[in-house]
Specification:
single chain; 46% helix
């Protein structure tokens, strides 16, 4: 990736939360397995990966139907969320180099907006614990839209609220569902490499990590 092309004309950065900015994927996987185990069911890595992107409120009903769980979707969703809340606060950590990138982008007066399928109530404790709110002009969360990733609605909302066009924006994602949402909204997109993201659509640029992006951003100054 060439820095003068990557950040050229960019006014706003749209940054995903889970797995992109904060290392929550291990937490999410552990909770997914524990949730199914409560009902005598066994999850899998493959199924878990397919659930990254949509909100918890959207995929719990899928698990209910798939595993024939008797409880209501509302009850099951609450059980799932209760298991996550404290873990997010106590265990969630920024991915390596993410803080340096956020700090530099803020110094360069780039507008940054968090765009996540997670609900605000779920990520709020992590945002506070990691002192992240100061970096973002807006927080676009899954409870603000009817459909979450891979549907592009959340990115359309982000574009509208930030008053920027797609070509003035840059999205950062770590999941195929997140990439699909940004691409459909016609936003140039960077994929943060991880063990779950083996292949990306041809129009997406893949980066190794945040330190790489920080070096590229520094070259534009």
């Amino acid at each position: 990736m060439k820095s003068h092309h990557l950040f050229k004309h960019v006014k706003c950065l749209f940054i995903d939360f889970d797995g992109t900015l904060v290392d929550t994927i291990p937490i999410l996987f552990k909770n997914y397995l524990a949730f199914l185990k409560k009902f005598g069911r066994e999850g899998s890595q493959k199924e878990f990966e397919s659930l990254i992107g949509p909100s918890i409120e959207e995929f719990v009903p899928i698990l209910k139907e798939r595993y024939l769980l008797a409880e209501s979707s509302h009850t099951l969703t609450q059980i799932y969320l209760d298991g996550l809340a404290d873990q997010y606060k106590e265990e969630a950590q920024l991915l390596n180099g993410a803080l340096d990138f956020l700090t530099l982008a803020k110094r360069l007066n780039l507008q940054m907006t968090l765009v996540t399928s997670s609900s605000y109530s779920l990520i709020e404790k992590s945002l506070n614990a990691l002192d992240l709110k100061k970096f973002f002009s807006h927080l676009i969360t899954g409870d603000q839209v009817k459909k979450t990733k891979p549907d592009p609605e959340i990115y359309y909302r982000a574009l509208k609220i930030c008053r920027v066009s797609p070509h003035e924006s840059l999205a950062f994602e770590d999941s195929l569902n997140g990439l699909k949402a940004a691409i459909e909204a016609r936003i140039p997109t960077i994929a943060i490499k991880n063990s779950l993201l083996v292949q990306v659509p041809p129009e997406v640029k893949m980066t190794e990590d945040w330190p790489t992006l920080t070096r590229l951003l520094a070259q534009t100054t």
